[in-house]
């Protein structure tokens, strides 16, 4: 990544221009290394598809972290406190529709299953 940019370029101008010869993912890694925000306001490049792809990946990671810490981890901790060694979690979106009766939930292969609605 020599010659791509220096951190001073960002701190002087607030913008990093990515040349066409450098992949957006390489630039993203360099920004992470130098603790430079990687978003549409700080990065300018000819490869718009690559830029949007990297930004989308960041959004997906953030969304997963939210699910992990707000929904999944608390349920896993509760299962561990009960002494369970396994925990199978399925998160459905608001517009997802699953038809089952509370007495006859879909088979999970386990004798213990729990449904939660929030």
Automatic annotation (TrEMBL):
This is BTBD10/KCTD20 BTB/POZ domain-containing protein. It is found in: Cytoplasm. GO terms for cellular component: cytoplasm. It holds the Pfam family BTB_3. Keywords: Cytoplasm. Residues 9-52 form the BTBD10/KCTD20 BTB/POZ domain. The keyword Cytoplasm applies. GO terms for biological process: positive regulation of phosphorylation. It comes from the Eukaryota.
């Amino acid at each position: 990544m020599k010659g791509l940019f220096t951190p001073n370029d960002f701190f002087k101008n607030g913008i990093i221009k990515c040349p066409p010869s450098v992949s957006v993912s390489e630039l993203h890694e360099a920004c992470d290394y130098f603790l430079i925000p990687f978003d549409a306001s700080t990065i300018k490049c000819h490869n718009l598809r690559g830029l949007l792809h990297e930004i989308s990946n960041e959004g997906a990671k953030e969304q997963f972290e939210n699910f992990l810490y707000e929904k999944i981890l608390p349920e896993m901790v509760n299962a561990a406190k009960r002494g369970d060694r396994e925990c199978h979690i399925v998160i459905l979106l608001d517009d997802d529709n699953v038809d089952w009766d509370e007495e006859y939930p879909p088979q999970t292969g386990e004798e213990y299953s729990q449904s939660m609605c929030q």
